[in-house]
Design a protein that fits this description.
This protein is mostly helical. The protein is about 55% helix and about 0% strand. It is built from 6 helices and no strands. Helix 1 packs parallel to helix 3 and helix 2 crosses helix 3. It is elongated.
């Protein structure tokens, strides 16, 4: 999202922002960058987004993981026992390979 606006940050700046936006989703991060761009537009300095603009946008955003904390936790608990991980390790993938075969039959 930062590349879209040609934002260049140092590694420490990026780490500070990442820590501040710890529970943000990808969509929320995209919205933060867009909001920071709006700040610069309002102040006649678009497209020069600074780390302070991004920090302000993060501070003004409440991620769904916090505003719906109970629902998110319930979904995580359900998924831990009822769903297959999309990022399963190779060991788990090998152990379950072929366990979900589907055959199609033309009637």
């Amino acid at each position: 999202h930062l590349n879209k606006y040609s934002v260049k940050l140092t590694e420490p700046e990026l780490q500070t922002l990442a820590n501040a936006a710890d529970s943000f989703s990808g969509a929320e991060l995209e919205a933060v960058v867009s909001e920071a761009a709006i700040y610069t537009f309002d102040e006649d300095r678009y497209p020069h987004i600074t780390v302070d603009d991004l920090a302000e946008a993060i501070a003004q955003t409440v991620p769904l993981a916090k505003s719906y904390q109970n629902k998110v936790e319930a979904l995580r608990q359900w998924a831990s026992s009822s769903a297959r991980s999309a990022s399963a390790t190779e060991e788990i993938k090998a152990a379950t390979r072929g366990s979900r075969r589907v055959s199609m039959v033309n009637l």
